[in-house]
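Final report, Chapter 2: Outcomes

The project's central promise was a pipeline that accepts a single protein chain and returns its three-dimensional structure in a standardized token representation, suitable for archiving and comparison. That pipeline is now operational. To close this chapter, we reproduce one record exactly as it appears in the project archive, with the input sequence first and the structure output second.
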Amino acid sequence: MVKQNGGQLLVLNEPAHCRESELTADLLAILHVYRFAQASYSCRMHGRLRYRKEISEAPDIPKS
């Protein structure tokens, strides 16, 4: 449409894409997700252990 009307389209800020930069970006994204998942898992496990300790030490819960 631009060419039909005698215009020219000029891209000023086109990021350079190469295989290495795309691979690096993908690996960083994977590491970020993995780190978040590990941190989330660690927090859940810590909460479960604390809950288990509170239950085992509760005086009103009968021990079997």
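Archive annotation: The two ends are 80 Å apart (CA to CA).
This record, like all others produced under the grant, will remain available to the consortium after the project formally closes.
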